[in-house]
Amino acid sequence: VWLPVYLIPGRFPALQAWSNRVLAALQMSDAVYLFWGIGIAILLSILFTVAEISLSKIQGASWDDRLHNADFLLPQTQKQKQNAALINISASTVEEILFRAYFFLALLNLWTHWLWAALLVSAVFALLHTNFQGFTASVWIFISSLILVWLLQTSGSIWPGVLLHFVLNSLNLFILPKMLGDKQ
């Protein structure tokens, strides 16, 4: 994408504008937004857990079963935990660059308001996770993605979103399962 933009300046103004937005989003933003990313991740983890418990009560199901339905995805051994941590770091970074910096910023030109692009990117992002984590988790992923886009729009950088994504995944992989204990 960048090759034609820089080899033939002025020939592709829309690509040039998108390229400039992506490069700007890859810059570090104000450190305050990094703390927002951490705080929002913790808040989302708590809210999604409470929502899952509430949904199970409404359905008359065991909340313990509902919260442990994806335990097979959790790392068990020390090596699996190390690999999961590395995957989390890379996935959080790559997914934010791909979905928020590239796709979202490219879609901004198609609509009059950023929310329409955010809805489309978030829907695709959530649907790509459905196969592994199930429909209900995809709803939470959709909401998280909308918040990640909002954080990019607010901060001008993907890095608070990368941190939010990493902390939220870490809480769900390592902290929350220990807090909830083994399934009875």
Provide structural commentary.
- By secondary structure, the chain is mostly helical.
Features:
mainly alpha, 8 helices, 184 residues, elongated
What is the structure about, briefly put?
The chain is an all-alpha fold and 184 residues long. It is built from 8 helices and no strands.
- Give me the Rg, rounded: 18 Å
**What multimeric state do the chains show?**
single chain
Run of helices and strands: HHHHHHHH
Which range does the strand content fall in? under 5%
Q: Tell me, what's the shape?
A: elongated
What is the helical fraction, as a range of percent? over 70%
Mean pLDDT over the residues: 89
Helix/sheet category: mainly alpha
Q: Sketch the major β-sheet.
A: none
Low-confidence stretches: none
> How many DSSP-defined strands?
0
Number of helices: 8
Span from first to last CA? Answer: 53 Å
Topology at a glance:
Blueprint: H1 2-7, H2 13-25, H3 31-59, H4 63-67, H5 78-107, H6 114-133, H7 135-155, H8 159-180
Helix pairs in contact: 2-5, 3-7, 3-8, 5-6, 5-8, 6-7, 7-8
